[in-house]
Amino acid sequence: NFRRKGLKVRPRSRTLTTVHESILDDVVGPCEILGKRIRIGVDGTKILKVVLDPKDKDKENVEEKLSTYAAVYKKLTNKEAVFQFPDV
User: How far apart, in whole angstroms, are the C-alpha atoms of residue 42 and residue 51?
Assistant: First the structure.
């Protein structure tokens, strides 16, 4: 309906990619995201690997919530995601 309103292109804040990125930021809550990678398997499945800030590891037992983050993100966006801390 953007064309009907006289706009030529869809605003960046309304694209699916931006909406999914903002959902990802909201899901991880107080943690900061350091990096994101998309892993494409041999069979064509895509898995989003999200690397969280190691400083947030001690906050509110975040380590146990990683699987919960993945389940919530999968339910909201229908995309597979793996949340992890970097190996130091």
Answer: 22
- Closest CA relative to residue 24, chosen from 42, 6, 39, 36: 36
Q: Is 41 helix (H, G, I), strand (E, B) or coil?
A: coil
CA 49 to chain centre: 8
Please tell me the pTM assigned to this model. 0.84
Alpha-carbon gap, residue 45 to 42, rounded angstroms = 7
DSSP string of 49-66, one letter each residue: EEEEPGGGGGGGGHHHHH
The span from the CA of 29 to the CA of 16, in Å, is 20
pLDDT at 1 over 80: no
